[in-house]
Amino acid sequence: MRIAIAGAGAMGSRIGLMLHETGNEVILIDRWPEHIEAIRKNGLIGEFDDRKIVAQLPIYSPEEIIEEHETVDLIVALTKSMQLEQMFHDIQPIIGSKTFVFCLLNGLGHEETLAKFVPKENIIFGTTTWTAGLAGPGHAKLVGSGSIEMENLAPSGKAFTLEVLEVFQNARLNPIYSQNVRYSIWKKACINGTLNGLCTILDCNIAEFGSLTVAREMIEAIVAEFAAVADAEQIHLDHSEMIDAIEATYDPQTQGLHFPSMYQDLIRNQRKTEIDYINGAVWRKGQLAGINTPYCAFLTQLIHGKEELLKAK
Prior knowledge:
Belongs to the ketopantoate reductase family. This protein is α/β, with parallel strands linked by helices and 313 residues long. It is built from twelve helices and twelve strands. The protein has two domains: 2-179, NAD(P)-binding Rossmann-like Domain (Rossmann fold); 182-309, N-(1-d-carboxylethyl)-l-norvaline Dehydrogenase, domain 2 (Orthogonal Bundle). It has helices at residues 10-21, 33-42, 84-90, 110-114, 158-170, 181-202, 206-210, 215-232, 239-247, 261-268, 279-289, 294-309, and strands at 2-6, 25-29, 44-48, 52-55, 59-60, 74-77, 100-103, 123-128, 133-136, 139-142, 148-152, 175-177. A hairpin with a 3-residue loop joins strand 3 and strand 4. The mean pLDDT is 95.
């Protein structure tokens, strides 16, 4: 299969490498000049648990995608949420009438963005538990294992989605065909909607947040808002299940010592966050449905205020 990875950072590097190793024709697309230069010069270095590989993969900036490039069978979307629309605007030359998009972004609201560029029948949504990191430009550290859940957005897309499932299975990416991927996306967004913003504002890791006497009250309020808005979209989030899933992350032996991605983006690297696609999306959707979401609204405003103070870019 001819596959483009749109957003070839840490996770894009992992998925691209694993698909490449099993004979797929993979191209990488990214905006980081140093990353592009390093891969063109030295190849993409992947450090797995038990091995190290170097793959000579073609990589382009979105602006370098031109009409002479052939269309691809599949685009795996792994940009930051706020970069998604501009990315797909720039890479339209490789999007054909039969090109599918597999969206693995965190957050909510990406369906509306992607539908501007491909028919809904050509959209696959998913979530992943794989992790990845970058040791530097062109150098991915890929430890641990994970899985990928996927489901076609429209019934007519199921046949191709099952082809993608087989390709990902051959690449040992542990895919699962879901009967309700939208629930999984909302569940993950709800977990992120508590831990990401609160750890960022409070300047703490997950275990430190969990130790606070006010932690339970805050997560209950945010979960209630996510659940109310999800119900309006015919997605049922069980309050107790969500709170248990969030509190399970507090353990220092598992995820507790981890600083969420939003913290890393904003506090460590002064980068703008994806808050508008997590709590901000619930706030917007709540307004449309007539549902009050004061915690999500205030947390969205706090993060944007912090972005301004830190001059995030």
